[in-house]
Amino acid sequence: METGKTGKYFKYAIGEIILVVIGILIALQINNWNQNRLDRHIERDTLINLRLDLHSAMAQLDNKIMQNNLYRFYDSTAMELIHSKTEVPNDSITKLLLAHIFTPTFDPELGTLNEILNTGKMEIIQNKSLRKHISSWNRYMDELSEVDNRLIYLDDNFKTPLYMKILPYRNSFNYVIKPNSASLLAEPLPSSNFQSLPNEFFYTMEFESMLANYLIYGIVQGERLDDIKTKIIDMIALIDKMIKPD
């Protein structure tokens, strides 16, 4: 008799344990489902913001690529004139040189991408290709920065000191700042009273070598910019596949 009661008790206890385990598993499944739904909501919002940042970066990048192509054209034109020993009026040389007096940089505001990299949000992004693009972003930017810094070094240590001696820098505003563009100048500055003296150095090996440096680094800079543009295009395409356009 006692044995029968004990057997029933164990069966009852086992049944209770099984019910508790099932309850725990159901609770965990519901919790996982809720967490997954929350993660997908966060992922969608993050991707929408990232897409906006990338479109903004693309606009700045296209402008940088245009400037890179334009400055390479100016520098290659000057190289051709030197090589052919073509006599060019001082005024024409001055305009050509003052049109390229600084190196613009690509500094996109990518708060969402940085947030993904710095706060662990990478884990909620399901697409492996997009995660790979995001993870390698800083490497692409570092490679571009190396070239930009080299060009800025040339600006600060060679071009600017040289140009300030023989070119009226005041006139550069007339070539760099376009009419009706947003600037601190209500109207163009009057031309300088000083005469430019570019012929004194234009047809020299020193100046030709400086131009060659700008052309070489300008070409590399253009390649880095194209690589970043391809990356942004690929990232936007991946995001568009993951979320429905608003």
Short note summarizing the structure:
The protein has 246 residues and is mostly helical. The chain has helices at 2-84, 90-98, 111-119, 128-135, 137-166, 173-176, 199-202, 205-242.
Explain what this protein looks like in three dimensions:
With 246 residues, this protein is mainly α. Helix content is 75%, strand content 0%. It is built from eight helices and no strands. Helix 1 packs across helix 3 and helix 1 (2-84) packs antiparallel against helix 8. The chain is rod-shaped. Residues 179-186 have low confidence and may be disordered.
User: Mean pLDDT, nearest integer?
Assistant: 82
- SS elements, strand count: 0
The major pleated sheet works out as: none
H and E string:
HHHHHHHH
- Our estimate of the beta-strand percent is under 5%
Task: List strands and helices in order, with pairings.
Layout: H1 2-84, H2 90-98, H3 111-119, H4 128-135, H5 137-166, H6 173-176, H7 199-202, H8 205-242
Which tags fit this structure?
246 residues; mainly alpha
